[in-house]
Amino acid sequence: MQNDPHAEVLRALGSFLVTEQSLGDTLTTVAHLSQQVVPAAQFVGLLLADEHGRPATRVFTDEAAPEIDQAQYDSDRGPCLDAWRRGRVVTLGDLTESDTRRRYPEFAAACAAHDIRSTVSVPVMSQGSSLGALNLYAPRPEAFTSDNEQALVSFADAAAVVMVNSYAYWGAFSLSEQLNEAMASRAEIEQAKGILMAGDPLLGPAEAFDMLRSASQRENVKLRDIARRIVERRPPPAPSPQDRP
Known about the structure:
alpha+beta, five-stranded antiparallel β-sheet
């Protein structure tokens, strides 16, 4: 029997220990895992509000996500904002349709500039309050099905638990500092993924991220530290005497 990819992702999220990862690593993991739930997505952005309640896409799997999202933040209208504010899924099947362009003109134009044809935005809710929204982007129209939406809602529910626990554990830091940390973590992780993929042409972004995550869990080292070690071309530490057979 083949494994259910969605179930595998939920298991990975359910076994995530926030005490072993920084908040930045946790949020980055959430973004990458959501992309594995719906492989049709070319990239993902995670909308989060800062301490003043202002939205920003500070966690993302591609630089295009915050560039697109900024158009809706500047105009104060867009599907990601609606998902976050209203707590509902917003799917845009074809961004070239006239109704969509009238509803979200700035967002539709930004998507067109990045060759994005469809999006889905899913709120991340905890006890009736919206923590943020996951935003997935695809280069073809009608890329996201109703099954995708249901899978993303289930994932967002599980992600909310992880995020709340991580916020509580790292509560000594201000949210702004946490989000800045998330940006720094993401940049190093993306560099490390690029190095891994350059060394193996058959390795995709998801597989490269899985390699980093597996090394982090195996060595009990933060994901960001594993990525930094790869970027700096440093070898793994030698095992301690008690770890040797």
